[in-house]
Automatic annotation (TrEMBL):
Broad enzyme group: transferase
Protein name as catalogued: Cytidylate kinase
EC number: 2.7.4.25
Gene from which the chain derives: cmk
Species: Flavobacterium nackdongense
Subcellular location: Cytoplasm
Reactions that this protein is recorded to catalyse: CMP + ATP = CDP + ADP; dCMP + ATP = dCDP + ADP
Segments passing through the bilayer: none
Binding-site residues for ATP, renumbered to this chain: 10-18
């Protein structure tokens, strides 16, 4: 059976990872959440004191990039891979609002992007992969067999993220989450290096108007293997 590459891009909290996980599971493919990689680099920068309220030591972060090891390890109990930063499982830490508040600034740095893009291309070189992010269909796999671009209204997205964070016991307000979603979208679409943009050949889905199930079925129909 022929293996293909599926690229899923879009704004934050549009349900990219839910769709990508379902597709990977259905097809027996590897799922890669590239946002987790940018989040792990951000967590590293926070832990080293390179980034904090009102300051950001980009030089030091770039200098220490070679010491950052990112590995995905499949967790059979969860059914998906978890992010390891220098051999430590950071899956929980990278999902906090603090990391969300800094991640888009870290993702603007070209040196960070080229390191992660190279690793992502390596992971996908044998196809049979579903990857989600912001630049997968445009930069990481411009020749992907199927490209999906997901959107949803900011309010729908903030509500989704807010519920997720609440479930985890994170003490955030809805306004804080909405502000974060809007800020990240702004930075992600306006940065110089690999801005978030729909690839010409991507198929767009507005997640606030159709159900998850409907969307999954529509995407499946687009896959011809
Ligand atoms: O997907 P998630 O919302 O976890 O991504 C977190 C952030 O990482 C995004 O807001 C964006 O700034 C950055 N990112 C990126 N390129 C990717 C994936 C994520 O710039 N391919």
């Amino acid at each position: 059976k022929k293996k293909i590459t599926i690229a899923i891009d879009g704004y934050s909290s549009t349900g990219k990872s839910t769709l990508a996980k379902e597709l990977a599971h259905h097809l027996g493919y590897v799922y890669v959440d590239t946002g987790a990689m940018y989040r792990a680099v951000t967590l590293y920068a926070m832990q080293k004191g390179f980034i904090g309220i009102g300051f950001f030591d980009i030089k030091s972060l770039v200098a220490s990039l070679p010491t950052i090891k990112l590995v995905f390890k499949f967790n059979p109990d969860l059914g998906f891979a978890e992010m390891y930063l220098n051999d430590l499982n950071v899956e929980k830490e990278i999902r906090t609002i603090e990391v969300s508040n800094y991640v888009s600034q870290v993702a603007e740095i070209s040196e960070v992007r080229s390191k992660l893009v190279e690793q992502q291309q390596e992971m996908g070189k044998n196809k049979g992969i579903v990857m989600d992010g912001r630049d997968i269909g445009t930069i990481v796999f411009p020749n992907a067999d199927l490209k999906i671009f997901m959107t949803a209204s900011p309010l729908t997205r903030a509500e989704r993220r807010f519920k997720e964070l609440q479930k985890k016991g994170d003490q955030v307000t809805f306004d804080e989450v909405l502000k974060n979603v809007e800020q990240r979208d702004y930075i992600d679409t306006h940065r110089e290096d690999s801005p978030l943009v729909k690839a010409k050949d991507a198929i767009e889905f507005d997640n606030s108007t159709i159900s998850k199930q409907e969307q999954f079925e529509k995407v499946l129909k687009l896959i011809h293997i």
